[in-house]
Amino acid sequence: MAELLLVEDRGRVRWLTINRPDKLNALNRAVLEALGEAFFAAVASGQVGAVVITGAGEKAFVAGADIAEFQGMSPQQARQLAQRGQELFAAIESSPKPVIAAVNGFALGGGMELAMACHLRVAAEHAKFGQPEVKLGLIPGYGGTQRLPRLVGPGRALELLLTGKMVDAATALSWGLVNRLVPHSELTTAAQALAEEILAVAPTAVSHCLEAVRRGLDASLGEGLALEASLFGLSAATEDFREGVAAFLENSNPQFPGR
């Protein structure tokens, strides 16, 4: 039996590949459990500086949840399923290390929610995005109703949520849902290059930026500015800060220790 999740290190970038191409990489309970274990291991590893999540094959990143698991599900079971997925995706969103989704095809339902939980999204030109849950008599359960309007605005979000339609990668790019759009043959290279671009700067500053944006989105402007000032102060206490300033003044390349 094939592994549900493939783990590969490319330098300091850990690639997590959901490996159910025959099922379009649909998320079932076993996949979510494997993804969670691998993700937390990546965050805990001192050898890993960034994470890329993708799907196996050329057709799908993740084409939604495994609908077969929905049959006969009680309301309580449905709520528990949503909560488990939300907890994992919240952990991805809260990661102190950058997480990039390399969207290699359909990102639908839970797949789109997984992509939105990542900090950045690089998509192949043939990728498609959508939240088709209303066509099953459901709503998104892994954060789609909350993250989508924060990314693209409530009007565009509701258009997708209420119709269940898909949008192509070019539209996703124009809406700000996707950061970069590349030919499928260049997707792996582009996602790796973006991760390495981030790894070239101070790790502590990257973590503080991620925290400032994540927490600031749910705060008032005043609260967000206070948070930024606090994290700015914490940054000034790091060895990365001292190394960065010294290298700048010496006109040399900084060697950030990550602390």
Write the layout of secondary structure elements.
Layout: E1 5-10, E2 13-18, H1 29-44, E3 50-55, E4 60-62, H2 75-93, E5 99-103, E6 106-108, H3 110-117, E7 120-124, E8 128-130, H4 144-152, H5 154-163, E9 166-168, H6 169-175, E10 180-182, H7 187-199, H8 203-216, H9 221-235, H10 239-250
Parallel strand pairs: 2-3, 3-5, 4-6, 5-7, 6-8, 7-10
Antiparallel strand pairs: 1-2, 8-9
Helix pairs in contact: 1-2, 2-3, 3-4, 4-5, 8-9
User: Low-confidence spans: pLDDT under 50, at least 5 residues?
Assistant: none
Q: Class of the largest domain in CATH?
A: Alpha Beta
The best one-word shape is globular
Beta content comes to 15-25%
Can you tell me the CATH superfamily of the largest domain?
2-enoyl-CoA Hydratase, Chain A, domain 1
* SSE sequence, one letter per element: EEHEEHEEHEEHHEHEHHHH
Write down the Rg. 19 Å
Mean pLDDT: 95
Structure description:
The chain is of the alpha/beta class and 259 residues long. The protein has two domains: 5-199, 2-enoyl-CoA Hydratase, Chain A, domain 1 (Alpha-Beta Complex); 203-250, Lyase 2-enoyl-coa Hydratase, Chain  A, domain 2 (Orthogonal Bundle), CATH 1.10.12. 47% of the residues lie in helices and 17% in strands. It has ten helices and ten strands. It has helices at residues 29-44, 75-93, 110-117, 144-152, 154-163, 169-175, 187-199, 203-216, 221-235, 239-250; strands at 5-10, 13-18, 50-55, 60-62, 99-103, 106-108, 120-124, 128-130, 166-168, 180-182. The chain has a six-stranded mixed β-sheet, sandwiched between helices. Strands 4-6-8-9 form a four-stranded mixed β-sheet. Helix 1 packs parallel to helix 2 (75-93). The longest helix has 19 residues, at 75-93. It is globular, with a radius of gyration of 19 Å.
